[in-house]
Amino acid sequence: MKIAIVHDFLNSFGGAERVTSEISDIFKDAPIYTLFANSKITDKFFKDKKIITSSLQKKAEALGFRHKYLLPFMPRAVEEFNLYDFDIVISSSSAWGKGVITKPETIHISYCHTPTRFLWVDRGDYIKQQNLGFIKNYFVSKILDKIKIWDRLAADRVDYWIANSLVTQDRIKKYYRKESVIIYPPVDTDKFYISNHKKDFFLIVSRLSPYKNISLAVDVFNELGLELVVIGEGPQKQELIAKAKDNIKILGFKSDEEVIKYYQECRAFVFPTFNEDFGLTPVEAMACGKPVIAAGKGGTRETIVEDKTGIFFEEPTKESLKKAINKFLEDENRYNQNDIREHALKFSKNEFDQRIKDFVKDKYNSLVI
Q1: What whole-number distance in Å separates Cα of residue 291 and Cα of residue 283?
Q2: In terms of CB atoms within 10 Å, which end of the chain has fewer, N or C?
């Protein structure tokens, strides 16, 4: 059984890349095909893996991996991969990977993190965030129209769909008209453990992108004066640093070991992203026994038990988030660290590994028969 793995691109390391890494560890001999890869990421997180990049690699390097400038060229580039030697192709994708072309006998399984967000869910916000002006926005909109048609057609190339959450499953059904099974992303719960060394800060670990809504949390903590630590990189980093008061620290990238220490020492984890497809970091925080103050829409509804492992706020407004934080502060001692960690173990890496193995084996056996 020859297997290939396809991922959109490896220019950063977030939840989707963690899933890709785990799938690669399950199928150790499988090469990873990706549109382009930053050696800083692959050398650290995909060491000893065979990485095959597309014709866009040199262009991406020249652009400093600012991949939005390559959007019109990505559909063709992903179709150029030669995957004809493989029995099974597993795409770990939130955009382009599902568009690879395989021979009729090859089984294509797509682990979907979300249907392409900037085409289906956040298109208006995506165009607005580019700040290009009316005329350029018009041309960007036309490019997105063409990519949207390609994206829908590319979905038909997938034989079997795996969704990372109920939210994603619903979107796959709505936008692609496809059925899927749910396998939650892996959390290496063995790496996380409870510590009684607690400090006075709240914590965010996230990509610093507009849709993550970190700016809202910074505004709220600016007004409340409570300590907040933000870990992560992204295009909003400098903007957040500029607006943060002295009670807020924007730390940028931290190693996994350092992040775990921050999880263990925080009072609570804050997750302000609405309509997140799953959200790994809240589960990691819970694996350290920490309650989560989370946006009440999206994948968090599947991973957090209200008033037991966390608390929700329902609107993306300062008032709503403040209300949730104040409610947490009124009864902070209600949360039991051991109960929170026990809940997080439901999303363990071992569970993910076994379900992926079983799924792939089942589909391959049906092909052989």
Answers
A1: 10
A2: C
Q: Do 103 and 131 belong together in one domain?
A: yes
| Cα separation, 195 vs 148, whole angstroms | 47
Pair 129, 206 in one domain: no
Residue 64 region by backbone torsions, left for phi larger than 0, else alpha for psi between -120 and 50, else beta = left
Q: Are residues 322 and 199 in the same domain?
A: yes
Say which CATH number the domain at 123 has.
3.40.50
pTM greater than 0.90 (yes/no): no
Q: How far apart are CA 285 and CA 226, in angstroms?
A: 19
Check: CB of residue 111 under 8 Å from CB of residue 160: no
Tens-place pLDDT, residues 201-252: 999 999 898 889 999 999 999 999 999 999 999 889 999 999 999 999 999 9
Task: Tell me the backbone φ, ψ of residue 300, rounded to 5 degrees.
Answer: -60, -25
Closest CA to 186 of 347, 10, 75: 347
